[in-house]
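Re: beginner question about structure tokens

> Can someone show what the tokenized structure looks like for a real chain? I only ever see the sequence side.

Sure, here's an example I had lying around. Input first:
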Amino acid sequence: MKMNGEKLINASRQEVWDALNSPEKLKLAIPGAETVEKKDNNNLTATVKIKIGPISAKFTGNIVLSDINPPISYTLTGEGTGGAAGFAKGTAIVILDEIDDNTLLKYSVDASVGGKLAQIGQRLIDTAANKLANEFFGKFNKILNPANDNAESKGNLNNNNQGISQKIWITILIILASLSALIWYSLS
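And the corresponding structure tokens:
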């Protein structure tokens, strides 16, 4: 499964880069995040608890950071397992572009899911994935703009997410969350 998207973040590129590399901020932004632990400079583990329809699972993910070009881009490669609920694995390329006083976060993900998650109905998966993505970017913007309690993402620019399956969204969110935490630990 492949997915591309863009989100405008209400902060400078350096602020976004720093937040993507802060385990405390990522833990606050990632829906269901419980832990983020550094194994070494290039490897990270994270635990995220999510509920999608009737399936509730705790995913433990391993992430490897590569092609680091601060504060512009990096590549995240990861795998997450949720026991009987299934698995997710893939690669995400994240690029940060400056737009005025804001940052356009672009991502390209190539991922797959399996197990019970892959068996859930498409409509239910699509709904859950969109909710998780909106929660992450909404919380991320609030973390970077605490003075604005009603801060929301300025929206999608060139939204390429229409028609993409929920399985892709779920996989991407798990991978992005895990990989972002890994980046921070790798740069620390």
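Each token stands for a local structural state, so reading them left to right follows the chain. The two ends are 32 Å apart (CA to CA).
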